[in-house]
Amino acid sequence: MEPLTIEKTDKTPHISLKDGVVQIVGRSITEDPNKFYKPVIEWLKEYENSAADNTQINIRVEYSDTGSSKCILDILKQLDEIFNKENDMIVNWYYEEGDDDMYDQGVYFKTFVNIPFNFK
Question: How far is 83 from 115, CA to CA, in rounded Å?
Answer without folding.
Answer: 7
